[in-house]
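Hi W.,

Here's what went into the run:
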Amino acid sequence: METLFAVIIGLLVAAGVFLVLSRVIVRVVLGLTFISYAANLAILTVAGLREVSPPLLTLPGPYMDPLPQALILTAIVIGFATTALLLTVALRAYQVAGHDDVEAFGDNLARDPDAHDGSFADPEHQSPDRPDVEDMQDDEPAPAPAGGRP
Amino acid sequence: MTLAVFFPFLIAALAAWLGPRLGRRTGYVAAAAFLPALLLIPELLRMPGAVPALEVTRWVPTLDLNLAFRGDGFSLLFAALIGVIGTLASLYSVAYLSERERFGRFYSYLLCFGGSMLGLVLTDNLVALFGFWEMTSVTSFLLIGLWHTRSAARDGAVKAFLVSALGGLALLAAVALIALGGGSTSLSGLDVGALRESAYFTPALLLTLLAAFTKSAQLPFHLWLPTAMEAPTPVSAFLHSATMVKAGVVLVAKFGLIFGGAALWSGIIVPVGLATLVWGAWLALRQTDLKALLAYSTVSQLGLLMSLYGLADAEGRFAATAHLLNHAAFKAALFFVVGIIDHETGTREIPLLGGLRRALPVTFAAALLAAMSMAGLPPLGGFISKELFYEAMLHQGPLFLAVAVAGSALTFAYSFRLLRVFLGTPRAPAGAEPHEAPPGLTLPAAGLALTALVFGVLPGTAEALTRTAQSALNFGDYDGYLSLWHGVTPALLATLLTWALGAVLVWQARGMRALGRRLTPRVNANTVYYGLTQTVNVFSSWLIARTQGLPLPDQLRIMLAAAALMAGYAVWRAPQVFYPIGTLPLGVLPVAALLIAGAVGVLLSRGRLTAVIVTGLTGFGSAAAFLAFRAPDLALTQLLVEAVTVILFLLAFRYLPGVRDLPRTRGRYVFDVAIAGLAGVGITLLVLSSVRFLAPPISPYYLEYSYKGGGGKNVVNVLLVDFRGFDTLGEITVVGMVALAVLSLVRLGKPGRPRRTPDDTADLPARRRP
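Here's what came out:
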């Protein structure tokens, strides 16, 4: 049983790592979620998966080890907090950069990867809520911030 | 003694505060910082007979770390030396420094340095010895770089620090090895016999030598000392003539009692010391800057001291200790003299100066005495200690004596060169009208020069001081004595030869300069140093330009590949720890299918909603697994969190574009698959290897005390709120902090407007701008 779960945990981590390495920011967040699932399951697995009672003293023993469960309980909540934070950061990054391509963020978040002429997106707020391409073109061409990569 | 070490640090804090208020008068306060060190003198004078005092302050007893200070003859002698020169340097600097100097900083650095140096010589604990050693490196870095707006000062400070920090690391390793081999971190409690037997002996010896050579500017580490002359002159007098550079000499003297028996010890130190003596003197002769001349002269004299202590016999230690006293007296005096010349004429260049004896008679007298002592002329102290030096080298063999004579002849020549600024026709840079310096400047110089004279005329004084160290350095049975006249000895004949050679060198000064220009080596310690530092600079710029600022995925790839390499190495080294265990029950197969379906599905999904929902499969799969493996609380929490996560994603998707799958290049794709696969396999192996319990689990404790102690029958809950309450508090804090961060991140941006167009669904294909 532990072997099966070890393999599953490996699969989850592999999927998570592959997602983390992808270019789109939402996929990166999802990848981290998968890694945190895998971590939780790993804690449970290494403590031993046995067919005994849950650690509720009203039931007859023997009981499962309660300590890993307490640790996972904390980890689930922290994992959720991490996901929320990352998602918000992704959101802000998208708003500032105007695109969601992690690879193009580089050291200058405001670079526009899709622009053919290598121009820069607006380094100020660029709301994602301008739904259409036409809206964008109405704007003044944004000045290239100094120090950015062309 | 503990007070003597820590009082300067206390006053340093006071001086930092007083500096801007009292200005240069802070120097009087600073001089008082050395009072406890000076109070050690009566104890020193009782010394050859008295028992060394030991003061122990417990610090980290479990690690055998104590602040132990041991006042044996040698330590006290050195502490008194530091106290005297420190006091004089503080007083001298009051008159020397300009009104605009930052006195608070200057004096606090100076006092911290003095305190570290006192700690270094007095400590009995090896770890503390290393600590004080490094503190002298750091404080001297600050002092040399005091005028940090000048690039030469910065360069000198960095150079001094790099070289002595290299030695400091060597000392740390040496101290660790000595403590391991000798079974104690106490210098006096070392089991020297066991250390000699242990395998650590030779490495510790070599590392100690490296430390001593870097600190005391022996070849080829002499490069930092001349550039360290960028420090203000009082500092130079204190650091680089009397104390700091002698830290290496102290180390060799003290550790010579441990390592002295080894042939390697003397076999390395004596040749290196003699080579430094000759080469330093040769370089000193070629300088035109008075202070640079003194710097190289210090290098040379340190070589002499090193070679004598390196002999590790009674004769060498006696001669070295006598010369130590003489050197401290004449070198500090000469530094003060050079400071006066600089102060009065505005230059230190020998060719620009001449005939200063008329304008500066007192200074001239002091300089004459000190320089004669340095040159080894009677009736000064330097003459006597040089005779002892010859005597000791004579017993090593004629070659050693020849090198010693050559070095001393060069010393004779550069001492004269130094005095030339006082002789001949009066000459000074335009605008400078040299006249005698105020007593604040001349008195310290004159006092030290008179000491050099007293050491020569009344050899008994120097002898008594030298003898105080005899029990500490084991030369009590040496029957030599200090005297101006030992009869016609080989040493005296060598001295006469030295004078003749020295006179020839002075006479043929022009020819020597031409020879010196011809003999300048193309590659020297400085070119090597600058070559190395520049290579490091260029390399690091190159590395940073190519590794920093990469896109996030590339940085992650590098990190993960590195982790894969390291973990792969671990697996290769220890493959036997993986135990596949357990049976395959059919009951959990649906759970497994759910988990795997999520992982596979998310990789295949194109739309963002699909991706989130498929992720949910794995989330619910985890919950099911928790339920299957008897963890109902976890399953409940996971379900709730899963629901909230989906809501969170949906909220965010309102403002995020669709999950378009931007293509990776083929090479990256293959690499990413490989990395992900390796990570998966690695984690699988890790889990398998961790399944065995290495120690009995501690959970029976919780099961037993959950109800008794916590009053709850759900052990997990009791664990969270009672046994690990602070963890839970931390968890809540994290969630709270995240909530704040999320709130501020969202509020920072423009409030988003909802999309109005009805056909603008979330899962449009990737939005491309033309």
